[in-house]
Amino acid sequence: MTVDIKKAQDVYKDAGESVIFTTLMLNHKDLKTEKDAIAEFSDMSNSIINSMRIRDPEAQAHIAWGFGSDAWDYLFPNAPKPKELENFKEIKGPKYTAVSTPGDIFIHVRSKKMAVCYELMDQFMGILRPITSVEDETHGFRYIEGRAIIGFIDGTENPAGIESMDYTLIDDDPEFNNGSYAFAQKYIHNMEAWKSLKTEDQEKAIGRHKFSDRELDDDEKLPNAHNVASKDEEGGVEHKIVRMNVPFSDPAKDITGTYFIGYSKDFAVTNRMLTNMFTKSDRLLDFSTPITGNLFFIPSKTTLEKIADGDY
Ligand code: HEM
Question: How far lies 268's CA from each of 88, 98, 204, in Å?
Fold first, then answer.
């Protein structure tokens, strides 16, 4: 089936300048109340975002939100289930582990203005707060020149613009076409250790030149350079996902990290990238520790309408 971008949430746009990532847990107290609130949120989220785009078009607000596997089973036990939606299974490499952590509802809001992210989240939480608790809330930002906080331009090999929907929108699961899978993983960096590396050693670790962003020749890269270890070339073809990572930091507390978010129409691709990174002990992992790991299904607007109408 061909995908229809008009039916999709914002799983293909840019990473934004100010970003809020929120992971919520359902209260599991009263299914009917929780289901009603989710139906209301499914109905209202689109109009809240449309209203914000009218109120401040320049802010370029974008939002995607969705469900973890346990939440889907709890809320919609009799409905069909997106075929790849399951709890993320921890990946144990020889040195490092991609942990799996809880998450029922995920919201990814971004805009040119933090005020707009705040306003959207404030309205969303008005509906969701009574039925949830907060598992994680991370405020990210676009770093100078669109660089990752480790100093390298991030997203160069990402599919760009309209092309990205070919990689993010589900097209082989009829009930859930135009939805997407989001993998969210919050990393804390050891910035002191990273900064103590010489620029050439950082470049060998990432596989690109720091200033110009040009790719290093293969024989200049470490065998476990990030852009070698993260590649998915299953079946001799390069597979891509859409990454919208941003840094976050509490500088006074010396806590700095990257919130990784990858959208794909086929979670298996993201999972193979992760498996490669952790089994090959990607050099980036010597300086980056994941503290969360969740897979979420991001429904299309068609699915959100069904949820709003109580069809599930
Ligand atoms: C600590 C978190 C991470 C940081 C700071 C980071 C940063 C970067 C940077 C700077 C690049 C090079 C430029 C580019 O093509 O975007 C890159 C490439 C890439 N990253 Fe990451 N990344 C992180 C985690 C991940 C994870 C978890 C995945 C996979 C699930 C991933 C997948 C990729 C892929 C596929 C490429 C492109 C490789 C190529 O074809 O050249 N990254 N990343």
Answer: 11, 15, 28
Where on the phi/psi map is residue 310: left (φ > 0), alpha (ψ -120 to 50), or beta? left
Is 273's C-beta closer than 6 angstroms to any atom of ligand 1? yes
Q: Model-level pTM greater than 0.90?
A: yes
111, β-bridge pairs: 18
Q: Which residue has the higher pLDDT, 162 or 19?
A: 19
Neighbours of 77 (CB within 10 A): 10
CB of residue 210 inside a 6 A radius of ligand 1: no
Mean pLDDT of all residues in 193-208: 98
Q: Whose CA is nearest to atom 12 of ligand 1?
A: 154
Determine the average pLDDT of the residues in 20-31: 98
| Per-residue confidence (pLDDT) for residue 114, from 0 to 100 | 97
| Catalytic annotation, residues | 154
pLDDT (average), residues 114-124:
97
Q: Which residue has the tokens 């969740």?
A: 294
Domain that holds residue 167: 5-308
Give the Cα separation of 242 and 181 in Å (integer): 11
